[in-house]
């Protein structure tokens, strides 16, 4: 049970949040600039256990004037990135709307050692078809969820 308790610990309040536990070792990079979503090295990676123990030993609330023992939950980057692609068949001129998707698809465990590691991959997927009424300039815009930003956009 201690193994699973040490996996994920998140403390938050009206201010910042703090994520500790061995789950932080699955993220070698964290978001270091909120405006640009730029990534930087995870400074909690090598000593996750010491940070976890220090957070558990702390009494009281997180305070803005005391350094955090882990990254905020919003510093964890999205696991997948995607980009739209239009494929044009040069033989017949047909067009297909596709999407390149890549990133961390899951976690695998070594059967002998029990070690966990991230499973990365990529895929090319077909975009859902848009019916003629939705594509008409007289209809309302189609709302699409951008997987990278997590925001709804209009096409």
Structural notes for this entry:
The chain has 155 residues and is mostly beta strands. The protein contains three helices and nine strands; from the N terminus they run αββββαβββαββ. It has helices spanning 2-5, 48-57, 132-135; strands at residues 9-12, 17-20, 29-33, 38-41, 80-88, 95-109, 116-126, 143-145, 152-154. The strands form four sheets. The chain has a three-stranded antiparallel beta sheet with strand order 5-6-7, with no helix packed on it. The N and C termini lie far apart (48 Å). The relative contact order is 0.13.
Question: What's this model, at a glance?
Answer:
The chain contains three helices and nine strands. With 155 residues, it is mainly beta. A three-stranded antiparallel sheet has the order 5-6-7, with no helix packed on it.
Strand fraction equals 35-45%
Report helical residue fraction. 10-25%
Q: Roughly how many Å apart are the termini?
A: 48 Å
Major pleated sheet: 3 strands, antiparallel
Q: What overall geometry do the principal axes of the alpha carbons give?
A: elongated
Radius of gyration: 21 Å
What structural category do the secondary elements indicate? Answer: mainly beta
Rounded mean pLDDT is 79
Strand count: 9
Q: Largest sheet, order of strands side by side?
A: 5-6-7
Oligomer: single chain
Low-confidence stretches: none
Question: What is the helix/strand order?
Answer: HEEEEHEEEHEE
- What's the number of helices? 3
